[in-house]
Write the structure tokens for this entry.
Amino acid sequence: MGSDLRGFISELEGQGELMRIKTEVDWDLELSHIAKVNEEKYGPALLFENVKGNDKSVFVSALSSTQRLAIAMSMPTNSTLMQMAKEWVSRTKKLIPPVWVESGPIKENIDVGDAVNLYKFPVPKFYELDGGRYIGTFVNVLTKDPETGWVNIGTYRMQILDEKTCGIQFIKGKHGDLHRKKYAQLNKPMPIAAVVGYDPLMFLASSTTIGAGEDEYNHIGALRGSAIEVVKGEFVDLPIPAGAEMVIEGELWPEELRDEGPFGEYTGYYSGKGVVPRHYINVKAVTYRNDMIFHATTVGRPVTDTHMLLALNHTASLWSDLEAMRIPGIQSVYIPPESCGRFMAIVSVKQMYPGHSNHVGNAVIATSTGSYGIKVVVVVDDDIPADDMGRVIWAMSTRMAPERGTQIISRGRSTPLDPSLPIGNRDITSRIILDTCIPYEWDDKPMDIKLTDSVLQTVLKKWKDYGFKD
Ligand SMILES: Cc1cc2nc3c(=O)[nH]c(=O)nc-3n(C[C@H](O)[C@H](O)[C@H](O)COP(=O)(O)O)c2cc1C
Ligand SMILES: [Mn+2]
């Protein structure tokens, strides 16, 4: 069956990256507040084993450290985010499609029809002003294009509205929303399934910008190095991981709306003004494993779980996009977690022709990842790694001439989550490219100070002799 959430949790435990909480904890704010404080202290992943009024566990903070991201990626735990993104780019050059199997642990419990009750699961309420309990935070939403059969997986937040209904937020242009529009034309309900709790690589692929028409399952298989085993749903004809913890299946009438929200988003702000009518799912079946583990992410302000994982998967997606454009000279790419893992990108380039750094800056904005998520692009010369913030600031301070280096792009796709735009008018944003590179065509380039290599080697050799410990 390959790796599932339980495999990941036991891997974390083996490496001292998990804490089990056996004290009774309330799903209503207490659980999320423990998680948030723990994440701000760079604590371990948490498994709440005693949630008030419930016999199921809740797992949070899966990926809030580079060590745990590295465990999810099966890489050495001292890997940096940028190294992991580079590995992602190389693994996803060869995609691996899923394979169908007859059954799996996800079918251990099947609630259909009258038996469906979303309140029987230990779903947290995160922040006081949230509109309710969010069953979909660490969620993978499956839909299918009714014409081409393309299966998409995307992360779209889901709120419990009543026992058998969940609200869902499709931001305009997301792939699930493109599918929804096709069902609207056909005047048919859209079959939909939400997977909660599986190999975290599924979520890493689900919550990043992979091109339209591409099945994220093929990327998850590539990241893992083996095909994902999938089974058919009880109600929907969609591929569901055989080893998932929980799957919510149902249908969505494409033009119908119910009140949803608000929700404390990962920008650190509420996304809009209170309650807004959004799409919703009529839940027809819920299947789940014995001793089910409910998986959630904390959202809220950076830097926490969501921001760390978005920094990894968005850096990887942007880097892949740039490689596909075959622009020469790109050395490294980085989207910092502090930018909510999406709003700012830094690219290091070895320039080979006049205007090369400008080409790179504009290319970032033209990619799928850049054209949606990124507002600020910083281009640095190749002596500076994109994730070395100290030297990026040095380049911005010393090499960047504001007039020459600044380019404002006045119109582009935006997100209702962007707090810098007026609430209710967030479809379009402007963008900025900050080119800190020394112009390629300059004959007289500023000379940076270098240590003399022969002396440096001698000093390093004698380092301990001088009395230094390491
Ligand atoms: C925790 C979390 C919550 C998210 N919530 C939403 C959401 O409610 N609606 C949305 O459209 N995108 C949301 N996103 C971003 C999408 O998952 C992301 O844009 C992804 O690319 C969507 O998949 P798609 O490109 O296949 O549409 C969220 C991401 C994360 C990490
Ligand atoms: Mn997609």
About this structure: The first strand starts at residue 18 and ends at 21.
